[in-house]
Amino acid sequence: MTYKKQNPSVDPVVIVMLGVLLVAIAIALVAFQPQSNSIDVAADSGALTQLMVAFVTGITTGGLSCLAVQGGLLASSLAHQIEQDYLARPAPGHLIRHGKKIKVAPEIPRASSAIPILLFLAAKLIAYTLLGALLGWLGSFLTLSPLTRALLMVAIGIFMIGNALRMFNVHPIFRYFNIEPPKFITRYIRRTAKGTDTATPIFLGLLTVFIPCGVTQAMMATALGTGSALMGAALMLAFTLGTSPVFFVIAYLTTELGARLEKFFMRFVAVVVLILGFVTLDGGLNLMGSPLSFQNLTRGWFAQPSDSVSVASPSAVDGELLLNVENNGYFPATLKASANKALTLNLVTNDTRSCSRDFIIPALDYYQLLPTTGTVQVTIPAQPAGSKLFFTCSMGMYTGQIVFE
Amino acid sequence: MKKQTFRVADMFCSNCAMKLESLEDSLDGVKEINASYHKLAMVVEYDESKLTEELIVDAVKRKGYTAVPA
To answer: What residues make up the domain containing B20?
Structure first.
C-alpha cells in the first residue's frame, strides 16, 4: 500500500499578505456608498445590507464550510505544481525522492506558489459571480408577484433551516437537504486536480461551482430569490470574496487539518445558517402578510407609545392616515383606524432609498414602488372591527400594521 | 475483486463522500469507491491480493473518518 504525499509548501507570508489585500478590497466593495442613483442596487441600503451579510457569511461560515474539499483541490493542484517546479529547477541542494537523491533549488520563488492561488481564486470568483447572475436572472421569472416571492423566500428559509438541522445531525432525513453532486463530476474534478500547467488552477476554480457546500447552496438559493441578475451576481461575488481569505490560509494546510477544522466549526456554521434560515422564513411570512411572522407576533411586546397612532390623532383625520416611509422602516409601525369605513393611506417618502420604498399590502394584493420623495395615496376598503392589515417592504424586512377598531 | 460496504457514520456533508472517493487515487489495489453522504456509507471494490479491510479502514482513518465494515 502506498500513499501519494500531498503537502503543499506555500509561503505563509505571501498567503497572509494577499489575504489581507483581498479583505481590504472586499470591505471597500461592500462599504462603497455611491452618491448618485445610477446603480439602484448599490443605492439601495437594503441591498447593501444583504451584500454585507453575504460577505460576512462568506468570511465566517462559507469559507469554513467549503474548506475541506475545495481547499483540498487547491492544495492538491499546488502540490503537483510545486513538485514540478522542484524537478524543473536543478540547483545546489538535494532531496530524497523515491529513494533517490536528486538536485533541487534550495527555495521555491514566492511567485510560483502565489500565482496558482490567485488564478484559482480569480476563476472561482468569476464562476460564482456568473452563476449568481444566472440564478438571479432565473429568479426574475419567479418574482411575478409578491406572493410568489414570499413562497420562494419561505422555501429558501426551510432549505436553510433543514441544512442547519442536518449539520446538527438532528435526524437522518435532513441529510437530503444537502445536494450531492453527480459522481462523474466529482471524479472529473478530482482527476483535473492532478494537472501541473497554469490552466489547471483556473479550471479547478471554475469547476468549484459544481461542488458547492451547504452554505454556498443556501446562498445560491438566496441569489435566486433576488430576482435580479445584477443583484444575484453581486450577492455571490460578495459571498465568494468573503470566502477567499480562508482559502489563502488553507493553501498551506493539509487536507487532514482542513477536515478537522471543518468539523470543529460545523456547530458554529450550523447556528449561523439556522439564524439566517429563520430570518429568511420570517421575511417570507411578512411578505405573505401572515400574522404568524416573528415581527407581527411580537409587535405588541416591545411597542413604544409613539409607535402607534390612533384615529384621534392629527394624522388620522377625515378617514386619512399618514405613514412615513423612511430608510429604516415605517413610522409609526402601527396605525389605528375606524372599522367598516374606507380610508386613504398617505405614504410619504423623503429621500427614501431603501427597500421600504417597495411597499406591499399582501392582503389587498397591493404593490407599489414609491418615489424617492413624494406622497402616494392608497385607498383601503372598509375592514371589520378587530381586523389587522399588515404591510411590508418587498424584502419582508420592514413591516407595520393598520389595526381597525 | 471484492466489493465491501463500509459504514462511515462521521461523514457530515457530501464533500466528505468526495474525499473518501479520492482514496481511489492514493490506495493501491482499489478499483472503485462509491461513497454516499445520504447513506453514510461507502462501497469499495478492491483487489484482495493487494488490500485488506483493515488497510482500507486505516486509510479512511487517515482521511479523518471512521469506517466500519457492514
So the answer is: 2-69
Distance, CA of A153 to CA of B33 (rounded, Å): 38
Class of A294-404 per CATH? mainly beta
Whether A266 sits inside 8 A of B62 (CB atoms) is: no
pLDDT digits over A265-317, tens only?
Answer: 567 667 877 887 888 888 889 988 888 888 888 877 765 554 555 444 444 55
> What is the C-alpha radius of gyration for chain A, rounded to an integer number of angstroms?
26
Query: pTM score > 0.80 for this model?
Result: no
- CA–CA distance, A81 with A194 (Å, rounded to integer): 9
- Closest residue in A to B56 (Cα) is A1
Point out which residues pair with A349 in neighbouring strands: A325, A374
With beta carbons under 8 A apart, name residues in chain B contacting A214: 13
Chain B residues in contact with A187 (beta carbon < 8 A): 21
ipTM over 0.90: no
Q: Where in chain A is the domain with CATH 2.60.40.420?
A: 294-404
Cβ partners under 8 Å of residue B38, min gap 6: A175, A176, A178, A180, B14
